[in-house]
Amino acid sequence: MTDIGFIGMGLMGVPMATRLAAAGHTVRVWNRHPDKCHAAVAAGCLQAASIVELAQQSEVVMLCISNTDAVSEVVLTDSGLCTIGPSDGKLLVDCSSIDPETTRVLAQTLRESTGMRWIDAPVSGGVAGAEQGTLAMMAGGEAADIERIRPLMSVLSQRLTHMGPVGAGQTTKIANQMLVSCNVLVMAEVMALASRAGVDAARIPEALKGGFADSIPLQLTGPRMANDEFDPVKWHVRTLLKDLDMANDLARRQGSSVPMAGLGAELMRQHAARGFADCDPATLVRLYRE
After folding, report:
1. Does residue 173 carry a catalytic annotation?
2. Cβ contacts of residue 47 below 8 Å, gap of 6+?
3. Contact by Cβ (8 Å): 68, 39
């Protein structure tokens, strides 16, 4: 069993932390809003009073937080991970979706400050995947470190793929989010158009299941779009927008053309600006119905 520290008790963090606790690991949790730890504590986790306390008592520190700035704050702040003291042998596993270049900088800074090594291991599969332990994980880091966490991550994921050095996991997650976001945007167009044309849009996922147009987002989100079922929120519009913006930033740095991701970001931004940033992406259908 492993002593784990888990920072970030959001939609994904709570089910991930509670699965690890249910598997017998000692899991200490921390969130900048402490009340968000209550569900994890009720499920068997321990609540840490600070980032430093959590990290000093953990062999593996996991992050699952909102964006690049939030991860930077957890690592670099005066009470953050860089202040925990000598920590050779400890690993940080970042399951957040953040900028690859910033990931490399933070990893180097943390290692120089403490000796702790970094694995970027963003996840795909949504809340359902986190609850069921069927996430797909794409990891960047040293091969030996990836192998060390593989048994631990098997509690959370159906597959952990080593993609290369630190930062490679985040780059792969950007590719994942480009595909997911553009898929969901086209799905919204399809559902609205089908309804206007007199087709029962709720039957489209069933009709297309197993064909080339099928996808997990279609099966999970398509019926919700067709039936205007937007609660409970399974993921956020703002998350897809953040990831599409990262995709466009990465493309600019690499001199690569990503016109679909560029248009997708602007459509997602338009929808978020209308008050849907914290809503489920199923609400994207309203871009075309109203």
Report:
1. yes
2. 28, 29, 30, 34, 37, 40, 41
3. no
DSSP for 82-112, please give it: GGS---TT-EEEE-S---HHHHHHHHHHHHH
Report d(CA 27, CA 57) in Å as an integer.
10
Give the phi and the psi of residue 18 in degrees, each rounded to 5: -70, -30
pLDDT, tens digit, for every residue of 101-149? Answer: 999 999 999 999 999 999 999 999 988 899 999 999 999 999 999 999 9
**Rounded distance, CA 67 to CA 129, Å?**
20
* C-alpha–C-alpha distance, residues 27 and 93, integer Å: 14
pTM of the entire predicted model: 0.92
Cα–Cα dist 174/184, whole Å: 15
- Any alpha helices (H) in 34-142, and if so which ranges? 38-42, 51-56, 68-76, 100-114, 126-132
What average pLDDT does this structure show over 62-87? Answer: 95
What token pair was written down for 197? Answer: 């044309």
Q: Which of 173, 209, 234, 242 is catalytic?
A: 173
Q: Which residues, listed in sequence order, are joined to residue 26 by a DSSP beta bridge?
A: 3
Is the pLDDT score of 1 beyond 90? no
